[in-house]
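Page 42, continued from yesterday. The earlier attempt failed because a stray header line got pasted into the input along with the sequence. Redoing it now with the clean sequence only.
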Amino acid sequence: MTLERPPSSPPPPLDPGFGVYVHWPFCLAKCPYCDFNSHVRHSPPDQARFIAAFRAEIANVRERIGQRRTASVFFGGGTPSLMEPATVGAILDAVNEAWPLDARAEVTLEANPTSVEAGRFRGYRAAGVNRVSLGVQALDDASLKSLGRMHTADEALAAVAVARGAFERVSFDLIYARPNQTPDAWRAELLKAISEGCEHLSLYQLTIEEGTPFEMLFRAGKLKIPDEDVARALWDVTQETTREAGLPAYEISNHARPGAESRHNLVYWRYGEYAGIGPGAHGRLDTPEGRRATAVERGPEAWLGLVEAQGHGIIVDEGLSRMEQSDEYLLMGLRLAEGIDRHRFARLSGRDFEPARVAALLAERMIEELPDGRLRVTPQGFPVLDAIVADLAA
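This time it went through. Structure tokens are written below.
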């Protein structure tokens, strides 16, 4: 269960950077475990209309927060690889006009293996995408079918090969703790995934999300997932196998070769600033009135109507108190192997941690203090991470 920070990794920057998240809300089909804001439509959406709406919302946020330099852009969904390359290029142009992209900006696009085609991927690369994240989810056909995926294992591996030929950086996702999955089978699957040569893996434990078809099956006793002991064994296999292969966990569910970490996700986990653009997107914006939490209308058609009427689809826009900001920093930052900067916590909250609480957690080996003064959760502490966050925040 160890989250190891490679000794060669530089300390995290004081400024996590500015990111832009763009949500494309459409999928070919809805997976039974998914509670993301994704929608299936019988006819393709009007991409020109969506381009105009994305441009308008980006301009609206730019007017509000002013100049920034963009460290990362992330096209998430949904299935962003259902967008035409020209749509991706137009949105990137709008981002660059509003907040110029850094010379080393990371531009990620999520893709499903069913929508991978070499010519389309070359188009994304020409549009400015330099990193792709593939929703592989499993490497055996029976599991893929049970997860409601529309691709086979062979198609998934072919998609990985196409992606590696088109982009400098490739990541893919797998889900574990699936029904009837054993630690030995998961280890073999992980080794197969690692052998594909990708620099980054996102490995998520299957959870039963409220309102999904999987929840209904689970409650009806028709879906059985591994019990707590097997789930822990699967977690341990995940950490051991990836660490030994040179892809240690830098965050609870994310593993990378040193230097290949997702820069965009690090903006979130290091509590940086990011604009959420498109249906259902969330943001954290630093404005003259202070840090604000934003959320955008989830329904694609309703979002289009709002943007066309008022220039944006934001329906939640709330100021965050110092306590709320420091709580969010703890909740996000303690997920990382690098831990958190206690001095930044003090700047956000206006106070330091309660010394007695820190001392008690150190004595119980729930947290540890790194040589540079940062605090991070220990292997023993991760199963009770929420309690540690609450304890430190009190």
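Notes: Residues 323-394 form a domain with the Arc Repressor Mutant, subunit A fold (CATH 1.10.10).
Reminder to self: strip header lines before submitting.
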